[in-house]
Amino acid sequence: MERRVYLELFNDKKAMDKETLFVKDVARLEGKREIVSQIEQLPVYTPTKKDENYVVIDVLTILQHIHSALPDIHVIPIGPKQTVIEIAREKQPLSPLFVLFFWLLLYIGSALAIMNFHEDVSMLLVHQKLYLFITGKELAQPLLLQIPYSIGLGLGMIIFFNHIFKKRINEEPSPLDIEIFQYKKGIEDYLSATETDRSSKPWPSKHSPQ
């Protein structure tokens, strides 16, 4: 009786340079335990320098490796047809001056953007009129309103982006997380459509003499 295994590729996977990837690293298997254990340990790919940052492995490549080693296994692929491997390479530590420069650049840029927005909408005038409406007194700098507003602006940004530095406030993804996810998904879809190996992948016949 033919032995059957279901195989589902992961959408993506991170790997170190020259790290050998096995079937278990790029796919989930469902079948008899002893068969799954054998398939999981089969090597699939080892990234090299020529691969740059991404490698696309399609399901036929996985099937080729499985049938070459275990030709009597009936593998039924389900789900995605490709998986995108992101290769993580060793990076040089950034210079403190480089980090400081970009920190100042982002700080000044964001501060100017906030100030220009408030100037465009005449926020100071709004605060002055609101203070006059509440207290009945005119004041050039209504700090009683401006200070809580400034604190609330910062807290609002923290809650909106759901992060305090690297710490996430809760499990709900922020709009920035969703945008990054959509961006990565777009890259993966593009690579899957353009970088997939389109060559035929023969393997030994299941009925050939062993």
From TrEMBL:
This is Stage V sporulation protein AA. Pfam families: SporV_AA. Gene3D superfamilies: eubacterium ventriosum atcc domain. The keyword Membrane applies. InterPro entries: SporV_AA (IPR021997), SporV_AA_N_sf (IPR038548). It comes from Aliibacillus thermotolerans. Residues 3-89 form the Stage V sporulation protein AA domain. Keywords: Membrane, Transmembrane, Transmembrane helix. The chain crosses the membrane at residues 97-117, 147-165.
